[in-house]
């Protein structure tokens, strides 16, 4: 038990230290997710389900850094993780949904430049991780690692352009944005049919008998694709050069280190597993508390139902008792239990119009135990008379036997 307690305390300390070291990233992650959820709610109300899909895709892409860190055991620097999150948000939410690609012509170029830079950093880290692995005997020079990182970045850029073309071709979207050209050069325009391009200006376009006044020719995404690949090339070259110098002087540079992921050590993997263990324990504890709360609530409801049933039975028994008392007393009203109070022997009964026959208004009750019509004969023969047929005296009827003789009442 003590060892398990120590392990839990150690795991909690590791989690606290990890949260402190990733505080800024955690705050940014939460803020971006909240913004995406708010945008998604707004798009649901607008019935724009295409943008809703983009919001869901963004939330899924936000989980990539966590997946890489937890499942692949690759440590992402805070700077790289922040840039990845901002890149996803800028591309999907600001670029697509808020139409920054249309409002700001340089927005797409900026993102593709950043993509080339980041992909070169990731490709660089992959080669560098293999280069440091003791089980792999091949050692690569810094220049060769930089070349591989550059090729990796360009390959990712080309694959992305393939994806954009496929979406435009099969789903009739416009991911490859079009450009208006004021002139066109083509060998097809050569009247002699020779392989010599002929350039002609374009003032207007007629399509299906209608004139399009766009000021030129639509290139159908060619210029956009080449521009994207060119700025991707620039980002890839920049980081490849930075990475090459980083390898040559390992440990001296701090800029490149902020963008290069690394494999976790065994100690860091244990720390990650400890964090996951503590998180699972917290989730299980919260679930158990919720179950206990629901069980307690159900028990409370059962007790209330039982109490309501008992109260209903009690009320029914009281009603039945009163009805039986009325039937025995011969009255229409309820029967009240009137007991003699200490120090009061006299009854203040109304002088009723009693029947002359005293036997009809008399209930012989032994020693204070009999019923008088409309009340109890209590104490030492005290008769509180109330109701028709009750012979009431101005003073209390006294007698050892408790018999009511009518006293001085008006008969």
Write the layout of secondary structure elements.
Elements: H1 2-21, H2 23-45, H3 49-61, H4 64-70, E1 74-75, H5 78-97, H6 100-103, H7 107-132, H8 142-171, E2 180-181, E3 183-186, E4 198-201, E5 205-207, E6 210-212, E7 217-218, H9 222-248, E8 262-263, H10 266-329, E9 371-372, E10 375-376
Antiparallel strand pairs: 1-8, 2-7, 3-4, 5-6, 9-10
Helix content: 55-70%
How many strand elements?
A: 10
Tally of DSSP helical segments: 10
> What is the 3D shape?
flat
Structural class: mainly alpha
Summarize the structure.
The chain is mostly helical. 57% of the residues lie in helices and 6% in strands.
What does this structure look like?
By secondary structure, this protein is mainly α. Helix content is 57%, strand content 6%. The protein is built from 10 helices and 10 strands. It has helices at residues 2-21, 23-45, 49-61, 64-70, 78-97, 100-103, 107-132, 142-171, 222-248, 266-329; strands at 74-75, 180-181, 183-186, 198-201, 205-207, 210-212, 217-218, 262-263, 371-372, 375-376. Strands 1-8 form a two-stranded antiparallel ribbon. Strand 5 (205-207) and strand 6 (210-212) form a beta hairpin. Helix 5 (78-97) runs antiparallel to helix 7 (107-132). The model is unreliable at 331-341 and 343-411 (pLDDT under 50).
